[in-house]
Specification:
By secondary structure, this protein is mainly beta. Helix 2 runs parallel beside helix 5 (about 95-120). The longest helix is centred in the first third of the chain and has 30 residues, at about 95-120. The two termini are about 45 Å apart.
Length: about 850
């Protein structure tokens, strides 16, 4: 269509425009409204990318089949959440109860795919170490040194101290905090591009004594790069870059409260009349300040304050090594402030009327705020380089996209937005005056540079902030691939790999690359863990565009400034493959029918109310990582589940070391599963309902009659006069107009259930076979190690638990995440 328009006339007569094409007011608030949905959307994108890369590597190495259907289903939920009003933050409160659940299901699915793919790759690595093996995964296409934060389970109880050693056997800086058999370990790790590395966490009598130049007190933090000062109010009053010998702040960096009363469309809009005014106030004291981390890996100071009904806990952090090239601000905020935007304000010593904003596929330069441009978007970072060109500062953002620039030396990142009502049509959106009230956690940061941002590589600091290193605790086993593995690497730090996945219709590897700096990249080489034997260029739909060049097993190409290219690459078979997984389904004597067909009245149900799984959507074969579940036939009144009543299930003979259980329950239930002498308590989750919600508002609903406007003067043909005439006619013809006002009454705390979802459907059936639309149902995948000598699995004695399938496996390697792969709500650890 666009090309048709371009070619419909003389091209030299068409206007050329460089810059934003923005909706001036009507979208400014939308950059921030409904912050948690925006956060979970971004976290899903990052986690999906990590899962796709790890799965692609695992498949090439001979691991389990690529989980295309599971990834596609999860992506479908994510894309649904990008619908106009949902992602804009302007949908009704009820709509978000559904989209939050979709977000959490997708996070659950991507996390499961990543864990199973990482387990497959790790099964080929040598995890034999003296202490506890930790597998660290880096999804970015750059070798990096960053901080790993891992919570480890020590079988003999948490030691009093640990020391950590890298794949090369050399010690790395670490610090440790123990509690209840678990231990939180921080250590510095170097991990190759799109790769894995094995680290050894050893019990020790004394902590690491390695020196990394970190210092901390209640009023200052310092590392090799920065010296940060904190004033008595709890604000960062100075950031001095020792490398470029520059003070970065001209005044304290503060959390500002900007009054927001848009005339119309409160969640959509911000108004220039509000933006041109100074903040009405700042988050202020009295501040409770304490040192919360003090080690050779990271130092941190926590500042707690309360202002305008909200509580702010901010943790300023500096790390050692290359991770210390950024200052991080962790934020935990319980937000209840009215008619305000919360903005992280950075008054800089650098000054320039123009700043640079990252667009993901390029950058754009913008000037200071004006009446047509006062709240603008960016992805992950924006930068102010001094007009001298000598130095500058890049603001790094985690899931925040709104910002503004009130003057030559100030950048502001918009964190939260709860509008008040103006005098226009906002009266119909009373619920939006409490939007985003609740609990928020996020990070933003700062990285300085000599010259401009391209010279300082601060764009990579933003990538690293958004996609931290991921740690998994492993068992100990030999492996032919050594102690590290990199799936791909690129010979330019100007190029970002935005996607790595298996092709939709072949066994090729799809890789999408883009140039990040606005500079041409000639002689670009893309290398994989094995040689490329053929390649072709494709478009975003993976349709062919033409041949690609392969030289000595590497794809050779070039990129124009901000160019983007996609290749389908055929790789040679790996020299070393992963150990095969052997599995066998266990025959079960089903005794309960839990599925029904559309419109069919069922004699029994999954639950006590007689409601059922939808038979038309329930598979008989369900791939789950390296194994497959075999389910019973799903039709009305046909038994396809085993009710847990303490039965003993004989395990198939053979050397199987793991049992997988597909189950769900009528209400969340705890059950004890016995394998040999070992008892395992599992929480079997409810088969229906939400598995995740953010803090939900509760309401009193009021119906209010809209006043009849006065009759306009006959000579008045203004927009408002014509609108008043239409309203008067409407009332005369149909009676009074009534609108709904929602009176806020409180918050129901959010929660996220953690069990891995093995299967879900978008609806379930009533006892009469009717579809309960958008009322999800689930089956969950649980796994347990089979101890030596165990020949049977004893089920819990709890008749609310339904077992749908059991599979045993002989499987090398076992990983579990040593940190949450997505948010924890309900009192858990973030």
């Amino acid at each position: 269509m666009f090309l048709d328009i371009i070619h419909s006339g003389e091209e030299n007569h068409l206007l050329h425009y460089k810059g934003d094409l923005e909706l001036t007011n009507h979208s400014a608030g939308s950059l921030t409204s409904e912050a948690v949905h925006k956060r979970w959307n971004r976290k899903n994108e990052i986690l999906a990318d990590a899962a796709e890369r790890a799965s692609t590597a695992a498949v090439w190495l001979g691991g389990p089949a690529y989980p295309r259907e599971r990834l596609t289903d999860a992506w479908t939920l994510v894309l649904g959440g990008q619908f106009h009003d949902l992602m804009a933050g302007t949908a009704t409160p009820k709509a978000y109860t559904y989209s939050w659940n979709d977000d959490v299901i997708a996070l659950n699915q991507f996390a499961g795919v990543l864990t199973r793919a990482a387990s497959a790759v790790a099964s080929g690595l040598d995890t034999q170490v003296q202490g506890t093996p930790v597998v660290v995964y880096n999804q970015l296409n750059t070798e990096r040194e960053d901080v790993v934060n891992a919570t480890l389970n020590f079988s003999q109880g948490a030691p009093q101290a640990v020391r950590v050693f890298g794949p090369d056997g050399k010690e790395v800086p670490s610090q440790f905090e123990a509690g209840n058999g678990l231990g939180d370990v921080l250590f510095l790790a170097k991990v190759p591009s799109v790769g894995f590395a094995i680290y050894d966490v050893r019990s020790a009598d004394a902590p690491s004594s390695m020196s990394t130049d970190l210092k901390v007190s209640e009023s200052s933090l310092e590392n090799a790069r920065y010296r940060v000062s904190i004033d008595s109010n709890g604000d960062v009053s100075s950031i001095y870059d020792k490398k470029i010998k520059k003070e970065l702040l001209s005044a304290p960096a503060r959390l500002a409260l900007q009054t927001e009363h848009p005339h119309d469309w409160p969640a959509w809009n911000m108004d220039w009349d509000d933006q041109k005014e100074p903040p009405r106030g700042y988050v202020s004291g009295p501040a409770q300040i304490r040192v919360v981390e003090n080690g050779p890996v990271r130092v941190a100071v926590e500042v707690t304050r309360e202002t305008e009904d909200s509580k702010f806990v901010q943790t300023i952090r500096l790390s050692a090594g290359d991770a210390g090239n950024r200052v991080e601000f962790g934020n935990v905020i319980d937000w209840m402030t009215k008619a305000a935007a919360l903005k992280a304000t950075f008054p800089l010593t650098a000054s320039n009327p123009v700043a640079t904003y990252n667009w993901g596929l390029g950058t754009i330069q913008r000037t200071n705020n004006d009446e047509l441009k006062f709240e603008v978007a960016s992805h992950q970072w924006f930068d102010l380089t001094d007009k001298s060109g000598d130095y500058g500062v890049t603001i790094l953002s985690d899931c925040k996209t709104g910002s503004d620039k009130p003057d030559d030396n100030t950048l502001r990142l918009t964190l939260l937005y709860t509008p008040g009502l103006g005098t226009g049509n906002g009266r119909g959106y009373s619920d939006q005056t409490s939007q985003d009230w609740g609990h928020h956690e996020f990070i933003y940061g700062l990285a300085s540079h000599a010259g401009n941002w391209t010279r300082g590589n601060t764009d990579w600091q933003a990538q690293r902030l958004n996609a931290p290193l991921i740690a998994f605790q492993s068992d100990s086993h030999p492996g032919t691939m050594g102690k590290s593995f990199s799936f791909l690497r690129i010979n330019s730090d100007h190029v970002f790999v935005s996607a790595v996945k298996k092709a939709e219709e072949s066994n090729d590897v799809i890789i999408r690359i883009l140039e990040m700096r606005g500079e041409r990249v000639p002689n670009l080489r893309i290398a994989f863990a094995g040689p490329a034997v053929a390649a072709r260029e494709v478009n975003g739909q993976e349709l062919p565009l033409g041949p690609a060049t392969v030289v000595k097993g590497e794809v050779e190409t070039s990129l124009e400034p901000y160019g983007i290219r996609t290749f389908a690459v055929k790789l040679a078979s790996p020299a070393k493959t992963l150990p095969a997984v052997r599995w066998q389904a266990v025959d079960l004597k089903y005794d309960l029918a839990t599925a029904s067909q559309d419109g069919a009245t069922a004699k029994t149900g999954f639950d006590a109310a007689g409601e059922n799984l939808p038979a038309d959507m329930l598979p008989t074969s369900l791939p789950y990582g390296a194994i497959t579940f075999r389910l019973g036939p799903a039709w009305t009144d046909h038994a396809n589940a085993l009710v847990a009543r303490g039965q003993s299930i004989a395990l198939p003979p053979g050397n199987f070391n793991r049992v997988y259980i597909l189950a769900a329950a009528d209400g969340d239930q705890t059950g004890t599963f016995q394998l040999g002498q070992f008892a395992h308590d599992l929480k079997i989750q409810d088969w229906q309902g939400f598995i995740g919600q953010w803090d939900s508002r509760t309401w009193n609903i009021h119906r209010v009659e809209v006043p009849t406007p006065a009759e306009p003067a006959p000579s008045d043909h203004s927009y408002q006069a014509e609108m008043d005439r239409r309203i008067r006619r409407r009332i005369q013809e149909r009676g009074p107009i009534v609108h709904t006002e929602m009176e806020y009454t409180g918050l129901t705390p959010g929660f996220i259930k953690r069990a891995p979802v093995a299967w879900y459907a978008s609806h379930h059936h009533t006892a009469e076979g009717a579809n309960e639309v958008y009322s999800y149902c689930y089956l969950y995948g649980y796994s347990l190690d089979i101890p030596d000598g165990a020949t049977s699995l004893t089920l819990p004695d709890n008749d609310k638990i339904r077992i749908m399938a059991i599979t045993v496996a002989d499987q090398a390697g076992k990983l579990h995440p040593a940190q949450p792969l997505y948010d924890v709500l309900g009192g858990g650890k973030q």
